[in-house]
Amino acid sequence: MKDQFCLRSIPDDLWEWIENQAHDHRQNINSVIISMLESRRRGEGSVLTPFPDRPVIGPSTSGTLPFTFIDLFAGIGGFRLGLQKIGGRCVFTSEWDRFSSKTYEAWFGDRPVGDINEVDSKSIPAHDVLAAGFPCQPFSIAGVSKKRSLGQADGFDCEKQGNLFFKICEIVKACRPPVVMLENVKNLKSHDKRRTWPVIEKSLTDLGYTVFHQIIDAADYVPQHRERIFIVCFDRDVFGDCPDFRFPETPEGPRPTFGSILEPAPPEKYILTDRLWDYLQRYAEKHRAKGNGFGFGLANPDGVSRTLSARYYKDGSEILIVRGKRKNPRRLTIVEAARLMGYGELVKTRDDVPVSDTQAYRQFGNSVVPLVVTAVGRQILEVMKTRIDDEKGFTLLKQNPRSKRRRKALRTS
Q1: Catalytic entry in 136, 175, 233, 242
Q2: Is 90 one of the annotated active-site residues of the chain?
């Protein structure tokens, strides 16, 4: 069987129709083209029409592009929610935590596959974009501090979580997605005296990808200071050595304010007890006396909050809400936490989150912000669209001879 076939100079309207057929009938472009050719070969009709038993679907939404993606270390679906908004269709999901999987299934209707280490990389469906927020605890400032205080290994030496990046590399090698999109904590670049990042960058470059990275503060999209590194990689065999990719510019207009996500009548159970509030004040005063910055954070309704972390369920100290003079502050409600992370469209009431408060805080604290994913994803689509406009049909049945040689070399290396 021939493993490549390149069509060029396809009229714009025909290419858009082929894309829509692929997207709306849940097929990749290869399958659409092959189906048309098979149908014509059998003499079924005088024109090439895939899926003759189904209606023709109209043009896709402006500003989007039909594409497929896989969602690794999916959590509660931040990547999925963000990429679906720009035309993406998820074809595979993996998440090992059973509580996160429960939330993911409730929101998206798919039950994620469990431990990715138990998945044969070659069995993963073909996809255009590999999206992964690989575990950040081995690299985050808080995670590293905790592990070292307990005498545990961090970074790549963390046996349970630190080596999962190399599972991503294994999947990339097996599946060759045109685009890889990763997210992690800001500290990834400075971890282990800046020795961790060069390993990650070189690993992706050696796999044949051009690597872009940038730290983005989600405060331009949600009222929360949340800096994360986004890593976007383009297969050089598909996009060339210098794809014209740029991370999104800062959105125009004022930033969203913390007060905009607050509920008007939150349940009283979120108010701090006298004992907890007294402890947090004494703890903060002790560290102020030592010249440290540790302590609780009272969020300004007209500004942005501190970063919501996975430990928020313990005392809520990093984001507390003032209730008035001589009144104890309160924690975020679950609905407010969802809004703060950009999940407001999915969480209208507390019942929309099918897990306990403890698990919900952990899930939101570990999540990527979907609105940032969408913003970065749109910039990725601009590169994909440019390539399609420049050279129609460039990946109808898979890249080019150079790519074939590289895939063979990768399989034998």
Answers
A1: 136
A2: no
